[in-house]
Each structure stands twice: as C-alpha cells, then as structure tokens.
Amino acid sequence: MAAAAEAMPARVAAEIAALPEPRGPMRRLCGDLARRIRLLAPLLQQLEDALPLADALGAARDLLRAVHDGSKIYQAMRGDDLLDRFASVNRQIQLALDALPYNTFDMPEEAQEQVALVHSQFKRAATRTDPPDAQLSKDISSALADRTFDPLVFTRISEKLQLQTMADIKKESVALHEMVISSGGEPDGCVEEMSSLLKKLKDCVITEPPVPETLAARSASIKHRSPIIPDEFRCPISLELMQDPVIVSSGQTYERSCIQKWLDSGHKTCPKTQQPLSHTSLTPNFVLKSLIAQWCEANGIELPKNKANSRDKKAAKSSDYDHAGLVSLMTRLRGGNQDEQRAAAGEIRLLAKRNVNNRICIAEAGAIPLLVNLLSSLDPRTQEHAVTALLNLSIHENNKASIVGSNAIPKIVEVLKTGSMEARENAAATLFSLSVVDENKVTIGGAGAIPPLINLLCDGSPRGKKDAATAIFNLCIYQGNKIRAVKAGIVIHLMNFLVDPTGGMTDEALTLLAILAGNPEARAAIAQSDPIPPLVDVIKTGSPRNRENAAAILWSLCCADVEQTRAAKVAGAEDALKELSESGTDRAKRKSSSILELMRQAEEV
C-alpha cells in the first residue's frame, strides 16, 4: 500500500505533464497550473505517503482534461464556474502542501526554495482574482447582437478561442453536442447563442481566402512546434540550452565551457552582473541540471554530447616535452634518489600548470600513481611538489578518475593533516578539484577530510582558509558531508567569523552557513548559536551577495521555528527585509519576501 501511495503523486503529475498544450480562453490558467505541478517534481520524489496531495493533483488533472475536451465557446461565455474550479483546485493543492513539512526533507536548498516558491504561488492562486477578458466578452456580445458581419470582431474571437480552421470548428461542434447530451438538454440556457456564434465563426473560416503556404510560413510553423527553451535554462553568455551548468561566486549560473573561456581570457567579473568574482572556482548546479534533463525528456530533446574527449585527443599530440623527455621524468620519479625525485616532481608541477596538453601527456606517461606515492615522502618539499602537481593535473577532467583510482584521496587527507602550510593549502585545493565529481564527494567525506579542512579553515594562512572554505562548500553539496561538518563543530567557527569580520572570512562564513542551513541538524546547530543579531546586521549593511546569503540562512531558520521569526522581528529585521525585497538580488528578493510573509503569519498566531 505504501509503495502505491508513493508512486501515486508522481504518476498523476506525469499524467498532467503528458496532457496536450492548452488551447482556448482558459489556456493561461491551464498552463500556469500544469507548470506549477511540474515544478513540484523534487518534492514528489521525496514522498512516501501523500494521499491528500495525490487527491489534489488528481482533481487538477481532471480539471485540465475537462478544459481541454470542453467547448471553448462555453468556456468564454460561461467561464465563471471554471474559474471557481481553478481556484478550488489551487486551494486544495495549497492545503495539501501546508500539511507537508517539506522544509525538513532531504532535498538540496535550491529544490526546497523551488518548492516553497511554488507553494506560495498556489496560495495566491487559491483566491480567484483574474477578471474576465473584457475585450472577448465585448466581441462575443457584439457578434451575437449585430446582424452585420464585422471580420475584425470574428478574427479576434477565433484567435482567442483558437477556432481558426475547419478542424477546430468540427471539434468545437462535437464538444458542444456532447455537453448538451451530458447536461440533459439545455446547459445554462445558452445553447442557441453558442450554436449561433459557432455558425458565424464557421462562416468566417469558410469565407477567409486560403493563403498559400510559403517557405517562411512553413519555417514559422516548424518554429511554433518546437518547444520554447525557458530563459533560466539558457546560458547568459551563449543563450543556448545548458548541458553542464555551473555556479560562479556571484551566484549566477553559466554553461561550464562558456564561463571557463571567459575566465581564461583574464576576466575577473561576473558577465551578467559585472560583480567582481571573489574566486574563480566553478560549482556544478545539480538542481538546475536535473530540471533541464527533466524538461528535455518531456519535450523529446537530446542534449548534445560533450566533445571534450575528441578535443583532448587532438591536444595530446603536442606538449612541452617529447616522449623521451617524459620517459626520463618518469624514471627519476620512480627510482631516483630523494633529490632527483624532488626535482622531477617540481618539474612536473610546473609543466602541469602550464597547459592542458601537458596535463594529458603527463598522465598518459604514468605520472599519477608515482606522484601519489610521493605524497608519503618524508621530505616536505617533495610532498609539496607532489600534491601541487596532482592539483594541476586534476584540472583536466579525465585525470580526476585516474587520481582517485590510484588511491590518492586518503594520502591527500593525510597531507592535509600533517603537511606544511603550503602542502595543506594545495591538498585542500586538490580535494576541491576532485570533489567536482559527485561520487568523489562521498569518498572524500568518508576518508575523514572534513575535520582537517575545518582546522585549516580556522588556523590556516589567508589563502589556506579560502581553499578550505571552497573545498568544504563543494563537499557539503552532498547531504552526508553536511552532517559530518556539523559534528566536527564547523558552525561555531563560522559564527565566530560572522561576529568578528576583521578576520576577512565573512563572505565564506555566510556562503557555508547558507548551504548548511538546508540540513535539519545544521539548522539546529545554527539556531543554538544566537544567529539572529549578526544575520540582521549583515542584511542591513552587507554586500549584495552577503545580504542574499544572510536572508537565505534567516529564511531556513524562520521556516523551522516561529520563535526565530519573532526574534528576527524584535532585532529590527523587518525594515531591512522590506528594503532587500525591493533592491536585492533576485534570490534575496524571494527570501526576504518569504520571511516577511512568515512574520505576518507569526503575528496572526
């Protein structure tokens, strides 16, 4: 029974997604309802038993089918009942979502934010506020009253009802006939008027001269049939559908290859916002990538395959060393004395830093397992060279698997614990680079990397602290590592950075707290550290990015505990949130608006 319940909401949502594109005067309401339900996909994947939501989605499916199959003329002339049904279905889904504690579910923060946004949209849609189409009502009244034929009036009516071909007219005639039969004769006493309007529209379609289909018309038809790519799925640089979306430090998402070219050209700013980038690390946007994949599957679109491998083969044909030179380097790494190994590792470090061709050729020559062995060297300089060479090699995507396959992660973690400061810094950067691959996040966390990364975050050099923060952030995209970080005591250190901005780690602290706050254990730890005053201070006076992250953290706290909401209001957050909801980043506006709504709700309790 539980398995059936689990599948039910997702199955009903899939049935809704499979419905044809809405047509007629209710198409906007139908499209909005279907779109909101599609955006609940991350939540539906989490549910084990949600019969109220399944019932509500079933009501939505039945309504959408009824509108699709029903008379478009009737919907235009007697649409009040349908508008009430749309409001009722939206209300039913809203109430079902009210009863679900989805903010405690094991979902990424972006997915939780998406569900919360859709929840608020259902709440607004539950109150019917849409006025009828005044122009359409006026045109229909004119068409029924006048004996004269005004082609402009009938053209507007046929366009809005989407009754523009003889096939459309025939389908509408069948729909009217079936409605009369099902209602037992005379639905709302308007059959005669509807039949009269249908006849006039039919005459309009017949009398319109046929237009020969030109090449441009056929192209326009094909374009119309192609699905429109949502703006949020397009790379802001190329305007093409993204296949590997990544997040830069400004919070914007780009196609990896496009933003990498931008960065490789020497740019230090976000292309979209022109905001200076605090670092050039690229974090995969897994939530958006999943949504794009779902959209592509629903629309029958296949993402283009990555062409990196073919480019790599061409690149590997040339490097800064010929084959004999590489063989000599490998020989010195493998069997030389300590001085020879140190020099060879240093040479590889520099070569691997220089270009992608060198990274490919060095890896193919067999350097990676030899460098992994040198991570255990008792000579500090050799160890520094080895870990930094692995860092530079890991920049090339295909080398990551070779490094992990050589059992490098436990040894890199050991360098992170006991190496020199330079070695620890580069060990943290290497772990970050490897953690770009999803499964490596699990392996690195399981190898015990989180506690020594937190140690580097607290006692490292300025660069070491930044490297540690970046690595921890990427690792904590995996939920299990959030729990490891909380158990290792990261929250109190981050709050200390927040309270004492002189350490220069405020940006990193807020970024890490924002990603941790989506986890219940982390959120509880944050709540116990008196977070409201420093968060409110940042919302009032921080940079745009920091205000956004502070609002995101505060939103997570307020969603979980009404007392935190009240504390934020007492601390004077309301005015700052109102200002942020008008002038902040898009995400900051959403978060601050949601918190203000929570404050209003808290007053009513």
Please sum up the structure shown:
By secondary structure, the chain is mainly alpha-helical.
Describe, in plain words, how this protein is organized in 3D.
This protein is mainly α and 605 residues long. 70% of the residues lie in helices and 1% in strands. A hairpin with a 5-residue loop joins strand 1 and strand 2. Helix 19 packs antiparallel against helix 20 and helix 22 runs antiparallel to helix 23. The chain is elongated, with a radius of gyration of 30 Å. The N terminus is likely disordered. It catalyses: S-ubiquitinyl-[E2 ubiquitin-conjugating enzyme]-L-cysteine + [acceptor protein]-L-lysine = [E2 ubiquitin-conjugating enzyme]-L-cysteine + N(6)-ubiquitinyl-[acceptor protein]-L-lysine. Keywords: Coiled coil, Repeat, Transferase, Ubl conjugation pathway. This is RING-type E3 ubiquitin transferase.
Whole-Å distance between the termini? 37 Å
Proportion in helices: over 70%
Strand content: under 5%
| Discrete helix count | 35
Structural class assignment: mainly alpha
Rounded to an integer in angstroms, the radius of gyration calculated over CA atoms is 30 Å
How would you state the average pLDDT, rounded?
A: 81
Shape: elongated
How many beta-strand elements? Answer: 3
Low-confidence stretches: 1-7, 208-226, 307-318
Adjacency order of strands in the biggest sheet:
2-1-3
Reported for the largest beta sheet, the result is:
3 strands, antiparallel
Enzyme class: transferase
Domain U-box: 228-302
Protein name: RING-type E3 ubiquitin transferase
GO molecular function: ubiquitin protein ligase activity
